[in-house]
Specification:
The chain is an alpha/beta fold. The protein is 52% helix and 11% strand. The chain has ten helices and five strands. A five-stranded parallel beta sheet has the order 2-3-1-4-5, with helices on both faces. Helix 1 crosses helix 2 and helix 8 packs across helix 9. The chain is globular, with a radius of gyration of 18 Å. Bound molecules: adenosine-5'-diphosphate, uridine-5'-diphosphate and magnesium ion. It comes from Urochloa decumbens. Keywords: ATP-binding, Cytoplasm, Kinase, Nucleotide-binding, Nucleus, Pyrimidine biosynthesis, Transferase. It is found in: Cytoplasm; Nucleus.
Length: 248
């Protein structure tokens, strides 16, 4: 199965003793080759070992079709993903929701995540990639939307290395800042980061760290850019055209 290739990849990866904090996107925009995911690597290596020869476990023998869904905070990623999931049979994995779920679990890692989210910064790649990898594994889906990830080049590199694959497409919701701010301030979900001070930081982080990821995938011909102004239904019409034309 596709995870076997991942296992082979992992077992070739060099060991490292760096701490989780060292892999933070904020540390350096130019430090793009993280070799520091010892925890995730160990777990994945175990997973590979325990699954060797277990292709008959009912899991998918092919890698799932993966769509990364990107856009600034409040651009409508979550809203559109719900519609895509319902109309096109995708499993919707929101990286932000996975992180908030970890916070709600009361774990020590959750405390670190909460602190970072309050500051509008990016959680260390190894934490987020591990949560996404586990959720993909549990869902056993053949079509997956990954909403709000990768947030920075380091996230991207970590995902591609640890999960062992690239997205098939990237959807980018392009929305003016003033519209995003208005939507976030009206979101009303009691989120610790939907206040004007944190929103300003999130917008800066989006411009400086997330746009380079969109540029990277654009250069590889994977990005579908969608104008995210108008009603949710109007935007979904553009989304529908893209997904209807795909062969998964
Ligand atoms: N096209 C739209 N027009 C106006 N408000 C919208 C639109 N799409 C989403 N919203 C609202 O804006 C807020 C942010 O949307 P959400 O889907 O959570 O965005 P994101 O996941 O990108 O942060 C939510 O309250 C949502 O209901
Ligand atoms: O891959 C991710 C996704 C989210 N976050 C953190 O979680 C917050 C909320 O993310 P979410 O995608 O839920 O926010 P949205 O863009 O949907 O408003 C972000 O500002 C980051 O602090 C992160 O660090 N890495
Ligand atoms: Mg969201």
């Amino acid at each position: 199965m596709w995870r076997r290739r991942l296992g082979a990849l992992l077992l070739r990866s060099p060991p490292s003793s760096s701490s989780p904090a060292a892999s933070s996107c904020q540390r350096s925009r130019h430090h793009l080759l993280p070799t520091e995911e010892p925890l995730a690597l160990n777990r994945l290596a175990r997973l590979f070992t325990s699954q060797a020869g277990s292709d008959g476990d009912g899991g998918h023998s092919q890698k799932p079709f993966i769509a990364f869904v990107l856009g600034g905070p409040g651009s409508g990623k979550g809203t559109q993903c719900t519609k895509i999931a319902s109309d096109f049979g995708f499993v919707h994995l929101s990286a932000g929701d996975l992180l908030r779920h970890e916070i709600a679990s009361g774990s020590e890692k959750g405390e670190l995540i909460l602190d970072i989210i309050k500051q509008g910064r990016i959680v260390p790649s190894e934490i987020t990639v591990e949560l996404i990898r586990k959720a993909m594994e549990m869902s056993n889906a053949n079509k997956v939307l990954i909403d709000g990830f990768p947030r920075c080049e380091e996230n991207r590199v970590a995902f591609e290395r640890i999960v062992g694959t690239e997205p098939d497409i990237v959807i980018f919701f392009d929305c003016p800042e003033d519209e995003m701010v208005k939507r976030l301030l009206g979101r009303n979900q009691g989120r610790v980061d939907d206040n004007i001070e944190t929103i300003k930081k999130r917008l800066k982080v989006f411009e400086s760290l997330n746009i380079p990821v969109v540029d990277y995938y654009s250069s590889r011909g994977k990005v579908h850019k969608i104008n995210a102004t108008g009603t949710a239904d109007e935007i979904f019409e553009a989304v529908r055209r893209i997904f209807s034309s795909l062969r998964f």
